[in-house]
Amino acid sequence: MANPAKILLVALLLHFGVAPLCAAEKFSSEQLAFFEKKIRPVLADKCHKCHSVTSKKLKADLYLDTREGLLKGGDSGPALIPGDPEKSLLIEVIRYEDTDMEMPPKSKLPDAVIADFENWVKNGAAWPDEAAPTAGENAIAFDLEKRKSEHWSWKPLAAAPRAPGFIDQLVGERLKEAKLRPAPHAEPSTLLRRLTFDLTGLPPTAEEIKAYEQAYAKDPEAAIEAEVDRLLSSPHFGERWGRHWLDLMRYAESHGHEFDYPIHNAHHYRDYVIRAINADVPYDHFVAEHIAGDLLPKPRINPDNQTNESIIGTGFWYLGEAVHAPTDVRLDEADRIDNMVDTFSKSFLGLSISCARCHDHKFDAISIDDYYSLTGYLQSTRRNEHKQDPGGKIAAGTAEVQKVAAAGNKILNQTSSSPPKNLPEGILLPTNSRWFPSGHAFGDSFIPALGWNAVKNAVTEYPVYDSSRYGENLHGVLRTPTFEITGDRVHLYIKGNAQVRLIIDGYFMQPFNGLLFGGTRKDVKNGDKWQWVTLASKDIAQKAGQKAYLEIIDNGGGSVAVKAVCTSRDVPKLEEIFPPNPKAGELQQKFASQLTDLSKKANEISKTIPNPAATILSVTDGTPENDFVHIRGSHKNLGKEVPRRFLTALGGEEIAPSKNSSGRVKLAEQVVSQTNPLTSRVAANRIWHHLFGRGIVPTVDDFGPMGIEPSHPELLDTLAASLIESKWSRKDFIRQIVLSNTYRQSANPHPELSSQYLADTDPENILLYKAPVRRLQAEAIRDSMLAISGRLDPKLYGNSVSVHITSFMQGRGRPKSGPLDGAGRRSIYTSIRRNFLPPMMLAFDMPSPFSAVARRTVSNVPAQALTLMNDPFVVSEAKRWAESTANIEEDRNRIETMFQQAFARHPSQDELKTALAWIQTHPAKKTAWQDFAHSLWNAKEFIFLN
């Protein structure tokens, strides 16, 4: 006998409707970007010499420089069967499955590259629509100025005159041209639900619905404005719009790859984003914090704990995937930096700059020089774990100790001596090269020769970095200048207790897994004895010729002092770099009484300095260096050096590069400059996309020629100009959009417009003759269930809740499982583990966080219906919801309440009659209500916005 609950479920699903299937573009911008980054460079580097129009002698009659060439194939038939890698000859030969035909012939491609080709073929073998190459193509100059002048996005903003209602005016003009009419306003309850989800990602409560209906009956316009203001001031606004931003930043809390090692303290970045959006931090400042928040002269201070907020934004650079044991660490660094450049360019500029990694951009006004001018900024930047200073109390305490030290140095009355000359090769001293202290322990610079350490009451013989200068409980990291590895070892002249790490080509995963990086980490424990400490191994020797630097880490509870580093195999005799200096002892003895009294004072102050607060993933400057053009993207084939600068098309060559810093502050200034038309356009368009489901430029992260041109160019520029004039306020910008008549339209077109005319004139509603119907994102669906069932914990911020692990989620690095309901927290607070993403979220198109995602996929697949029907979380929360309404006595009122909770509206008479009949005839009332609740969540109306 059929289960009556399932019969009701199906009946209600049919009654409420099902979602239409979504048509996909032939090749999405994401697919094309994957091709440009992962596939074309390999074809150019490994295949074109023998299989292209530029080949001196074409082999096997096979062209691999066009899609048509691959489809047509050569002597052995088609090389490519789109969608089927197992039947594609190209995949067979690169796998080395046929010993008679292995390509490339000299060596097999890395497994990761082969996997990229398999995925590319499986997903249809995307290739941009472009003219076929010619034999003389290499001689054609890259005309950046011509490309810039021909494409709309590089041109200055051309804003229309702004008056109240300019959005409706400019949209209306396009509708009038097409002989279309805007739809009437949506029903009040429909608009309330739309606003609440768009601004907070949560459904309106029964109390909010009632208050809104009462206010609307008195004054509709005032009620809507009040509701918008209430929602914009809600702390849940930052959670909703923060989730949009995290998609762009490929936010995750683990590194992915094989073992999915954690990204410690990543959640502080997530909380920073939510706080910044709730505080309506101007967007231009928010962007600047991401690029150079560690260097801003006036950082933003958290009002609650008085810590530096700005520096947290820089953590985004290192939220990407990381490989734990790369065989080619320089390539690994180039790939990581490429991901950073890609995230930076798509998120802030709407450009695919990474497409210029191997060659001048095929279509846009971006040269290969532009690409490597940006990578230089990141080559000059170091990953850092910053210890927050609550209320600036640590800085204040160290400043007081420094005053005491200054008094002691005044007594000594010594001037800094000149750096020693004729040093042995490979010696790095504090005086002959720039070192980079961070944190609080080491201060801002070294203690000079014959300088005084107030806490230790010691006159130094030679320049030294000493983490005891303010006490022994402070934290800090000292980084040496960048140097070249010349052999199998590196030496430090050091005393104290510390962890020392050799960072080769920016590789920072060694603490998780030392495979292939043996000997690059050492715990030093030599007390108060100066000695040479050596890091040595064959793994270091194998990386000779590569760039590296040392990190000397003091985690508090002790101290460490460093005088020199030697990068040569053999250390020099001490007298060659540190000849005897009896004057230090003489001074110490001469002024003993005065220095002792001052030292006691310094130690008293030191004891009052508090411990740091949270540890923040961030960046800091390292040795400034330019990058070199990688010919065909190969780090083994370097071309000319390119100075660090912004894009040529945006005036990057007009500003001299920084010599003494990474230059990220200047970069940030140029990115958010009002003369840069991209940043404001991209931000305005992205917000529009989130409110309408489609951007004015649909390819929201690609404003280049591979993207789609704006449907309303004048509106886009006017919106961008208004964003700037509002001092980059997100909230003011969103407010003007959601209060427009265009946003408030019904999802049903004007009754005088026939469906046939609409299908012929504007089948995709690009001109916005009605409100678009949009599906809720995965997080909003889950959070709605928690809110409606009464389980939602509204707490903001804090440690992430472990993801719930099902039996199907297997693999190395599998974390401990969290609770099924995520402890009731909103989805944004669930830990994002790259290799263990929640199945329910994936079913509803939560993106995998490996690259910037500005536009989520909106699919319609069977897994979604199956998830809503069978997922244990959905079933358990439906049960909880039904139980939470059990105190409502009359069935009619209970159904009414549940409809309002699910759909923000009252049930129709037919819906009420059907539901009552079901409930009242069911033999098990408790089960009936649970099935009824579950069925409402399976309705199309629950997961869509009208």
Task: Describe, in plain words, how this protein is organized in 3D.
With 946 residues, the chain is an alpha+beta fold. Among the domains are: 4-20 and 871-945, no CATH class; 29-127, no CATH class; 281-384 and 623-671, no CATH class; 390-609, Jelly Rolls. The chain is 39% helix and 9% strand. The chain has 33 helices and 18 strands. The strands form five sheets. Strands 2, 3, 6, 7, 8, 9, 10, 11, 12 and 13 form a ten-stranded antiparallel beta sheet that branches. A two-stranded antiparallel ribbon has the order 1-14. It has a two-stranded antiparallel sheet with strand order 4-5. Strand 15 and strand 16 form a beta hairpin. The longest helix is centred in the middle third of the chain and has 21 residues, at 329-349. Mean pLDDT is 93; it is low at 4-25.
Task: Please describe the structure with a list of short key phrases separated by commas or semicolons.
single chain, about 950 residues, alpha+beta, two-stranded antiparallel sheet, 18 strands, about 40% helix
The helix-and-strand class reads: alpha+beta
The largest β sheet comes out as: 10 strands, antiparallel
The parts where pLDDT drops under 50 for at least 5 residues are: 4-25
Q: What does the radius of gyration come to?
A: 32 Å
What would you call the shape? globular
Mean pLDDT, rounded to whole units?
93
CATH topology title of one domain? Jelly Rolls
User: In the CATH hierarchy, what is the superfamily of one domain?
Assistant: Galactose-binding domain-like
Count the helices. How many? Answer: 33
The number of strands is: 18
* End-to-end gap: 37 Å
Portion of residues in beta strands equals 5-15%
Question: How helical, in percent, are the residues?
Answer: 25-40%
Please identify the top-level CATH class of one domain: Mainly Beta
> Judging by the overall fold, what is the CATH architecture of one domain?
Sandwich
